[in-house]
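Appendix B, example 12.
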Amino acid sequence: MSSLVSHRRRNPSINIVPLVDVLTVLLFFFMVTMQFKQISALNITVPEIKTAGKNEVKEQITIALSPLGEIYLNNQLIEMPQFEEAIKLAGELTPDLPILLVADEEVPLKHVTTVMDVCRSNKLNKIRLQSR
C-alpha cells in the first residue's frame, strides 16, 4: 500500500540569493583589479626608463611640455609669463606641492630645465618626471 501513496512534489523554483552573492563578488573583484588611467589629450611621447616608479599622487600640478615648446599646466595651454605667475601663486599657497613634469622625448633639455628652475625658485621642489 505504501507504493500507492503519492508523494507531493514541490514546484520548482530558482533561488536567486546565491546568484546575487556570486555576482557581487565578481563585481567587487573586477572593481579592485581595474587599472584607472589618466587620459590626456596631449600627443606627448615620454622617454622610456627601466627603473621607473609609479607617479600616483592625489594632489599635484601636472606640467606638460610639447616638442613645439608649448607649456600645458594641468592640461591647459599657457604662455610662459602666465605659467610663471601661476607657479608663483601655487608656491605661495601650498609650498612643496608635488609637480609632475611630462615632457616629450623630443623636447630640448633647455626647456625642461627652464620649467624646473621656475618651479624651484617658487618653493616647489618636489618635481617628478613622467616616463614609460
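The first helix runs from residue 17 to 33. The chain has a mean pLDDT of 81.
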